[in-house]
Amino acid sequence: MSATEITLDDARRHAAETVKRSKTSFGAGMRILSKERREAMYAIYAFCREVDDIADEGGTRDEKMSGLAEWRREIERVYAGAPQTPTGHALKEVVCRFDLPRNEFILVIEGMEMDADGPVIAPTLERLLAYTRRAAGAVGMLSMPVFGAPRTQIAEDFALSLGDALQLTNILRDIEQDAGEGRLYLPRELLEEHGCPLTPQGVVNANGLAKVREEMAQLAREKFAAARTALEHLDWKILRPALLMMGVYETYLDKMTARGWANGQPRVTISKGEKLAIAARWFFAPKRTRNTTLNDDAS
After folding, report:
1. Burial, 73: exposed, middle or buried (Cβ in 10 Å; 0-12, 13-18, 19+)?
2. CATH number reported for the structural domain that contains residue 34 in this entry
């Protein structure tokens, strides 16, 4: 199908099918939105999925970088009103309706370029946080206008702190899986401090890895706490999709903390029932006080 033949309905359907195929845990949060906002989030997710697939799937470094460069050009075409891909067509409507910042799309692509140029192995903490800002924080910054959040520093603080928290938690969950793919996202400073090898395969059985995990978990908790502090000044009802994810990922972190940080444990999971319990609290809670945690009864 040529670019001129792609209708808005085609584009919306493509984005929705991309979300459905991915079986993402973000899907539940999207479904509670109004139709207009849900379709907007589907378009943003489809973009993120497609650039992530370029970085993660097969191909040479040059092929991956070329694919991401083409997406840079497509974002420019989106803002010029002349996209060429189904996802670009879905985004064209969304960026106009919600006045989405172009630079955040570029930051997402930069995050994928960091993966494609890698693999990422033992980055400095500064570089790791630059990566989480791009891979997760930028997605939050694109999502906030769609949710209907105000364009304020507090809303930005919430989005960026939560993005860091989610990505750091994911890194903790996926250490062994990432190592199998030749990646190591744990910060170099912590690995060196606790005597761990700076190689993906070497770190998984290292004696000091438990302490590295523990300190990474503390950093993730600090980011969750910063997001909750910002939330005190925002309308939680608008942010329910983000709060569902916050509850899920804090529960992951709680489960990992409760079982301890010994090497060789399976990737932590959450049951469907636990996810439903988290969702129910944000559907029906009449209000949230500043001292209420998101995961009191989820684990």
Report:
1. exposed
2. 1.10.600.10
